[in-house]
Write a structure and sequence with these properties.
Elements (H helix, E strand, L loop, with lengths): L10 E4 L7 H4 L5 E6 L3 H4 L2 H8 L4 E5 L8 H14 L3 E6 L1 H13 L6 H7 L9 E5 L11 E6 L4 E6 L5 E4 L9 H19 L7 H23 L4 H14 L13 H13 L3 H15 L1 H16 L6 H18 L13 H14 L11 H10 L2
Helix pairs in contact: 4-5, 7-8, 7-9, 7-11, 8-9, 8-12, 10-11, 11-12, 11-13, 11-15, 12-13, 14-15
The structure holds 5,6-dihydroxy-NADP and zinc ion.
Length: about 375
Amino acid sequence: MKNFVFQNPTKLIMGKGMISRLATEIPADKKVMITFGGGSVKKNGIYDQVKAALSGHKTVEFWGIEPNPAVETLRKAVALGKEEKVDFLLAVGGGSVIDGTKLISAALLTDQDAWELVVAGKPVTKTVPLAAVLTLPATGSEMNSGAVISRYETKEKYAFYSNYPVFSILDPEATFSLPAKQVACGISDTFVHVLEQYLTKTGVSRVMDRWAEGILQTLVEIAPKIRENQHDYDLMADFMMSATMGLNGFIAMGVDQDWCTHMIGHELTALCGLTHGHTLAIVMPGTMTVLRETKGDKIIQMGERVFGVTEGSRDERIDETIRRVEAFFRSLGLTTRLSEEGVGEDVIAEIERRFTERGVHFGEDGLVDGPTARKILECVK
Ligand code: NZQ
Ligand code: ZN
């Protein structure tokens, strides 16, 4: 195990009816800007619960943070927040609303343009305090310090780091209204978050391996049940916990991490508009195939412990595990090939060009540059 420092300050508030706790969790003297997406919270009653809980607070609302939050939209929220002199932010929504609000929380305290903060690539820790009410389990943004911000004008999408939410409220009932596609993408995103922190080397940490495998096994078990009944409270609670625990640092202590599948996925979203979790379902089988030599031992461990693959030669077990992973994504109702989404050679060429121009070397061994990203994408054409 490698040396590490671990600290996650987010207070997790989980369960039915817990949105009412907003009344006491946010100090009464704060002026709160509440941020929202496109309006799903008005249809499922979450907006009414939030407003009722904050009836004693001074609030300002900002609507319209879109999926893959755009800096062009977030700049407007920053201007409103400055004008209204808000000193607390509450994000109500999925990863996009929470991520966008993280950038707002940093940009409120500076004159620098929000996009400059993103491309500077340095964590911003001077921020307005932020909390979240989560409505979509997927990104882990409710309990991490990351955000992913898009710039529509130039079709770019980059990670940005700031502070953790002070607290996050997770009510599984908030997920009952999710469209099936978002549930599928949320499960796929969670599954791949775990793989990015797990599918590297064997023998580094038994504890991290088994925590990660526990989340993977949970997802494989609950996914078909959720497809049958998305209104089962305990199933959705397990889904929420899997997503939060999958990307809040708990399974990353002292182990290698990869993230190349995410980096390629972000380009597919930026260039073609594919939903985040869906891009990962397409790219991950390609990553496993191209990096089968360096990741082989861990792929075999995963095949055995998560999918029960124990028969055959080394190569056969690796092949079968990759097949099971792709079949899992397809069982969610997602396509797993670029051609099925009309993504062609021009996009592969542009991703190779961007990675080469940026001089990137993603993955635990730094093996994923432009030409390797091309190979990965060619595998899943
Ligand atoms: O905007 P509204 O109307 O609220 O609708 C949203 C949106 O259209 C809808 N939705 C959310 N909760 C709902 C609901 N509809 C009905 N009922 C509910 N309870 O779902 C749509 C998608 O929402 P979005 O927030 O975009 O999804 P997600 O949570 O998957 O977030 C995706 C973004 O997070 C980034 C992705 O790159 C992408 O930009 N990520 C953030 C990470 C992080 N902060 O650590 C890590 C991830 O790897 C990921 O990259
Ligand atoms: Zn993700």
